[in-house]
Amino acid sequence: MCDTGCGEQEEMHTKMTQLEDRLNVKKEQLLEKELVLEEVGSLSERLRFQAVEGREETLDIAKTVNEFQARIKKVTRRLMACVSELSMYQVCVMCQVCVMYQVSTFKLLPLSF
Question: Which end of the chain offers a freer environment for a tag, N or C, measured as fewer CB atoms within 10 Å?
Answer without folding.
Answer: C
